[in-house]
Write a structure and sequence with these properties.
Monomer. Binds directly to the core enzyme of the DNA-dependent RNA polymerase and to nascent RNA. The chain has helices at residues 2-10, 12-17, 21-40, 80-86, 107-134, 205-215, 217-220, 250-255, 260-268, 283-290, 314-321, 326-335, 361-369, 375-379, 383-389, 394-409, and strands at 46-51, 56-66, 77-79, 95-100, 140-148, 152-156, 162-166, 181-192, 195-201, 224-232, 236-243, 273-278, 296-302, 307-312, 338-343. The chain is α/β, with parallel strands linked by helices.
Length: 410
């Protein structure tokens, strides 16, 4: 009963940690064997008998009876006179099993046992949590804001598990208050020491894909397939969808009447502009659709270099490029092609790379970033618009415009 009372005092951890009794007993055996090794030098000659139903365990030490003056290892051997105190008819060479009471280990050993048990249970919990969240990678998860730091928001779920939402995994417009619920996908989990570090993301394309699954029944049921998602978090996204049932309009089903279905997703993503596009295996048609809302006149492909030239009427060019070059950049990511814009009816134009002797490459790259890769594509824009859309100073832009204008005046 002494052992039982002590184990019951240990078992309080079971209720706090939701650990089953059988697992607790296995951890207890491991803890006790470590204690026996420390006290006796070895646990090889000890039997630990566990009864998980009663929550009890017994520890028995097995020793060989030797003559009184021949004891060399007190842990493995017992003198004949000591053995006969247990049973009066023991003889030299026989095996003696003697129960070890936990109380005999001493108060300090019991305190150490308790501390070791706490450590082992935490280790078990952390391994369980790691496995649980490893299986949840790529899935939507909801947790409550617990603490807001400069570089991350710390969330807690209903079980008290800590989840990290780093600053670079937050949508730029995200603003959190303590106590509010936050949705994102579990992007990763790793063990830091023995503690699992769970990372949530709201910027991953997979988050938008999972929101489609959650909010649109046809996607959840598999009637509509999300083929690919590309995003500039908080700004713009493009989602290619397809259906194997000709009776279903995948774009219409995802958007809903007057945008009713997609409105909740847009709101969740901080009013991110979402273009839903019909997927097709025809690359020219897919590129034309990806450049929506612009109307494309012609698409010419080079499949070896994955390069596409699209011909547009002048009034469609700004639509194709989009604010900050977002539209053309996402269209390229969605289709896998590098897209160059050509203006219909403009016969004479010069690639910006032709001016590399006069214009530094990083400036050319900055114009290309917003979809401007020819002289006339730059000249067709107002100076103020170029200043807003690029990271270039007004003085630099004026100098570039002067150089480009001289080309056509010549």
């Amino acid at each position: 009963m002494e052992n039982l009372a002590l184990i019951e005092s240990f078992s309080e951890f079971k209720d706090d940690k939701l650990i089953d009794r059988v697992t607790l007993m296995a951890i207890l055996e491991d803890v006790f064997r470590n204690a026996l090794k420390k006290k006796f030098g070895s646990d090889d000659n000890f039997d630990i008998i566990i009864n998980p139903d009663k929550g009890d365990l017994e520890i028995w030490r097995n020793r060989i009876v030797v003559a009184d003056d021949e004891v060399e290892d007190e842990n493995q051997e017992i003198s004949l006179s000591e053995a006969r105190k247990i049973e009066p008819d023991f003889e030299v060479g026989e095996d003696v099993s003697e129960e070890v009471k936990l109380i005999d280990l001493g108060r300090r050993s019991i305190l150490a046992l308790r501390q070791n048990l706490i450590s082992k249970i935490h280790e078990h919990d952390n391994t369980t949590i790691y496995k649980q969240f490893k299986d949840l990678i790529g899935e939507i998860y909801t947790a409550e804001v617990h603490h807001i730091r400069h570089k991350a928001v710390i969330l807690l779920d209903d079980e008290g598990n800590e989840i990290i939402l780093p600053k670079d995994k937050q949508i730029p417009s995200d603003f959190f208050r303590k106590g509010e619920n936050v949705r994102g996908i579990i992007e990763g989990v790793e063990l830091k020491g023995n503690k699992p570090m769970i990372v949530m993301s709201r910027t991953a394309p997979e988050f938008l894909e999972k929101l489609f699954e959650q909010e649109i029944p046809e996607v959840f049921d598999g009637l509509i397939t999300v083929k690919k998602v590309v995003r500039i978090p908080g700004e713009k996204a493009k989602v290619a969808v397809d259906s194997y049932d000709d009776r279903i309009d995948p774009v219409g089903a995802c958007v809903g009447m007057k945008g009713s279905r997609i409105h909740g997703i847009v709101r969740e993503l901080g009013n991110e502009n979402i273009d839903v596009i019909n997927y097709t295996s025809n690359p020219q048609l897919f590129i034309s659709r990806a450049l929506s809302p612009a109307k494309v006149s012609l698409v010419t492909l080079n499949d070896e270099t994955m390069h596409a030239e699209v011909l547009l009427r002048p009034e469609e060019v700004s639509k194709a490029i989009g604010k900050g070059g977002f539209n053309i950049r996402l269209a390229g990511q969605l289709t896998g092609y590098e897209i160059d814009v050509l203006r219909e009816g403009v016969e004479e134009d010069v690639e910006l790379t032709e001016f590399s002797d006069e214009i530094e490459q990083w400036i050319i790259d900055e114009f290309k970033r917003i979809g401007l890769d020819t002289a006339k594509s730059v000249l067709d824009n107002d100076i103020e618009d170029l200043i807003k859309r690029t990271d270039l100073e007004e003085e630099t832009i004026l100098e570039i415009v002067r150089i480009l204008k001289e080309e056509f005046e010549d």
